Records
---
Amino acid sequence: MSLKLVWKVGSVPTGRYRSFEKRSWPNAYFSGADNAGAAASIDADESYEPRHRKMNDVGFDLTVRITIVTDQGWEWRTLKKKARSINEAKELALNFYKQNQQYVR
């Protein structure tokens, strides 16, 4: 089975109060999955900006959260290791699922 995560960034805030909203960091979904639920999420205290995509070090820690599916449902789990770039965060999420195939949906 080929494991692939598809990453999508949150939409740009629009409307009257857009200056008060933060653009969300990328979320991952399993490629070709029947379930549309998120597989992983990148998060930080700072708002996402397109320039962060190509940076090798964004200047702050990125938190990676993954989805764990159990008999009781699903829940988010935060990985202990922090990332310093979006590519590093994506790699952490992919490596988690490669090492823990039981959580792949």
---
Amino acid sequence: MASASRALRASRDVSQRKSGRNVESKTALSNPAVPFIPELDEPDTNLRRIAEMECQRSRYAAEAERFRALRDDAIDDASRNLSLRRIAAAAGVNHTRVGQILKARDPDNGK
């Protein structure tokens, strides 16, 4: 009886793969402690590629946010000794943007 249900499940998985529906990976089916990771386990190559791109996008967005915070800290430190125009030239932004960054960090500090 167990082999019949296994054969039915296998044939259902094949038909779902052919129709393009999402099917969990064999790893996830055999071991429920292993999570389904779309960018690795998704059987459809198009969906796997989309999941991979989203994973990379979110990683790069987090990295960009980290560098933005580091830049803002450096601008804040430099604003004590340098003009907004010199800081802007070094940061590659407009001096008005430097003023906005400083004001957003500390409303009393904006020059």
---
Amino acid sequence: MASFAGLSSVKFTMPPNRFYWARRLPAEGAAIFEPNDIEVVRVSTVFGATPEFWTVTVMGSDEHFDLAAFEFFHKAPRRLQT
């Protein structure tokens, strides 16, 4: 499990293969600022079971992102976890 701080700066431990509310952080040095709305993401273990291999997938996309590219807030409600 890995710990991340959310809006309230309260750390929580997040297990993988679950859905979370998160916001994409602005990329350093990027010329274009991407929208940073809060979205539902999944912490994936497709590249390995240990936290250093975990990635983030955005719903509706097959792209994988680094955990550090997102600010995590809270686990998504159970009904979204299909």
---
Amino acid sequence: MSADTTIILRPPGRAQIIDRLSDRPAEIREAALMLAAAIQDEIDRLNRSTPNDDALPQHKAFVSFLEAIADGLRKIADALERSIKAAEAKSPDQQKGTDRTPRAFSS
């Protein structure tokens, strides 16, 4: 690939992440919960077929890894839910029905 066609992918900055969360907190919360549920389904499937040989330590480590991811996603969803409720409670426009989307985070 020549230098002219190289695409450099950079992770979003903190401000971009906050903006995205603020713009669609309920959608992101739902996506996090759905992903956590899908991971939990995979954990359950893996636990139904536990290996009995040398692969058991790797199996347990992978299941623990998936459990940590699912737990983190549920914590993100909970934090977004609290933030949405706090923004709704603080926003006088929201109480009047004129603000369509609460800003869950401030930048």
